[in-house]
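A note from the maintainers: we've had questions about how concatenated examples are separated. There is no special marker in the raw files; a new sequence line simply starts the next protein. For clarity in this README we add a label.
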Amino acid sequence: MNKFKLLSILMLIAVMLSACGGGAAATEAPAEGGNNTLVFIPGSASNPSQAFGFKMFQKHAAEYNFDVSMLDGKADVAEQTKAINNAVAQGADVIIVNPNDALAIVPAMKAAQEAGVVVGIFMAAAAPGDSTFFVAVDDKQAGGVVVQGILDLFPDGATGVEIGGQAGHPAAIDRHDGFTTALADHPEIKVLDYQNPQQWDAAMAQAIAEDMVTKYGDEIQFVFCHWDNGATGVINALKAAGMEDVLVFGVDGNAVAFEQVQSWKNYNSIGQNVETIAMKSMEIANLFLAKDASAKFDNIVPFDLITKDTFGNFTPPEW
């Protein structure tokens, strides 16, 4: 066989391999336009705000080029740690976590970052290094708003109680710390008692409120409850005791809050917009994935103050 004929045959074989998808050229670069993967790990999927948060991640995922899934933290530190480890093992590009206990899951979050995963904290603040970034309201500001709201109704001061959020949760810690800091300048406001439930559970909040009503009775002029669904339990306890003039503050701004603002004589909600926080989380995650210099660790979304005078200015949320 002459050299010319041999060369022709070899060229023909190369063309056939290329047409059939063989050879190195077909696998040198990944297909363009693919999505990054994002795993949302709530403290508990049964928590209404977290369930709605996942719905908002799903709603806007395509806008930010993400494929979104969820692993449930099941209101348990060990389960949430396992979920973070599983997300890393599954090859997630981004993990977004709402912590059950901000300190207890730090080792898992740091390990995820060391594995090259972008780790965001959702609806709660975090310490530098514990995660890649966080997106949240400033929960400490909520406490200051409550103090001002108490003074608006009771300019000479008042006595009341505080019912916190889930013990150990960063949002609960910050709401309490902000409230305490703001109270330092107002000795005319006296907090008679402060207790945390073990979970964000309205029945637990109601049980705490019932005990406080039994103990303090008409001394309670205000109740600061760390979340609006928990305040439903507080209202039940106050109704049963005939204490329907008590000022109640909740935090979240959910559908329950909008109803309670209208139905309870003195109810104010300090609202965090879950949809805005979910969208901002995906925006910031993309900046970190792109190693964009503008990516920030701390990302604060402002509160909405929802009262009888302002609730008509907002679209009621679904959760």
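[label: protein 2]
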Amino acid sequence: MERALTEQEIQFFKSDGVAVLRQAVDGTWVDRMNTVVDRQMAAPSKWANDANPGGATNRHFSDRYLWKQNSEIDAFVRHSGCARLAAQAMESASARFYFDHLLVKEAGTANPTPWHQDIPYWPFLGKQICSIWLALTPCDIETSSLEFVRGSHLDDKYYLAEAFTGDNDANKSWISQGDGEPCPDIEAHRQDFDIVGYDMEPGDALIFSAWTLHGARGNGSADQRRAAISTRWLGDDAIWNPHPGADPTVGRDDVSIEPGQPPHDDAVFPEIWRS
């Protein structure tokens, strides 16, 4: 069963840059993706970023670009209904898939996810670019649910990217090459920003613009993992824009398009949904 967005959810996405989608996908996908999380944490891919490998607590883990090798994630991308939700929110006639991203903080993980926007990390430009962050475990703000600066996607700001796990971040070498203005110190001046966050249950999702500032605290739970899978989506106005500081996992040599062109490369950025 595939869900559709309500008019209110679409309006929240447009005005706030984020909308919470309760029970966004069929619950069977939650069980299947939690199984994938367990397997990847036991045997990470070469694209994984793993602080405290093997730890049962205080472990900040991510893995990405698994869809071509992992049939379960490929099935999720194609059949969960997320592509339709992304296209509806972006008011795009189509939704192309960019990449999958597993995001895990074990119990007692102190490391926060720094405040950032996604667009500087990715080799694309356009306003119709978004993520769907699907909760695989219960979480609230204190256990690392995402927070957002409401409406920040409308500010026309392009912020400098930073590493998620500090000097130990496996991606720091390419992230540090990027440009942009420094992100404001939101955490130190929370009262100056319109911050919104959500309590999440497994199967709930957050859909947000690649331009929306967001972050997450560490996982303060003593016994509960926080796990999510985020899928990244490209709408009609997205263009290929490789640049210093962009994720090099998919680069110029991997695509059949030129900078400034739409990402119409079905082998790399498959079109999953079209109206």
